[in-house]
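To assess whether the prediction recovers the assembly geometry, we first specified each molecular entity separately, as shown.
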Amino acid sequence: MFILHINMILSMDLLKTYTDSRGKLTIAEAHREIPFDVQRIYWIYGVPDDQSRGMHANRISYQYLVAVKGVVEICLENADGRKHYLLDSPDKGLLVPPLTWNELLKFSEDAVLLVMASHPYEPQTYINSYEEFQLAVHPQTK
Amino acid sequence: MFILHINMILSMDLLKTYTDSRGKLTIAEAHREIPFDVQRIYWIYGVPDDQSRGMHANRISYQYLVAVKGVVEICLENADGRKHYLLDSPDKGLLVPPLTWNELLKFSEDAVLLVMASHPYEPQTYINSYEEFQLAVHPQTK
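The predicted structure of the complete assembly is given in tokenized form:
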């Protein structure tokens, strides 16, 4: 049986960055670096050292994550496995497809995590239970 | 003659922010807080203390600005006048319509300015000369 490992399908992108004497500008365009229409943008910050966030998957929404400041440690899981990522630079982007369990495990004190999402917020599209997520991605184990 | 002042049309928004023990999340949705399709997102950072940016207007593109970290001092000018803005909190948003001259005057050392734009980058849509901008917004003075 051929198994796709998560590190084959969820890799970080290095975003185009323009650097000159006036500083840096990193860019992400819809339907280029971000492979969807951006309907919702949010940023998470001021997360205490001992707190984690996420701990859910979404049934339909794509998300694109960038730590535009500081460092955020993330764990993703899909049908093929789990993988850790360190978002530690404003030019690193991480695509999170639907049906990917995401754990935002650790934020540095100064961290700002930018999230661009393909859908408006719809609570019913979230899977908040890890057991329910397992059943969704491994239906044969039902 | 009735004159619209720029402070009547370009005011900062206070964006919806969810705060709990896990930190803060500030959100902006297309066609709600952001009154356009977001085609391009970029972030400006690492700007030296003595540098400014911007110094242009765009003929067609809307932009929405948020200092998601640090403080950015901005001056906008349209046909009705000039106004200074201090983006000093991740929940303050500033809409910049087309034909608005923008000067990003001062970035704090830690500042990250998030820009959401309605169009892909098209160099020919920029007005880079202040004189040309003046002619565009005050055609009667040509």
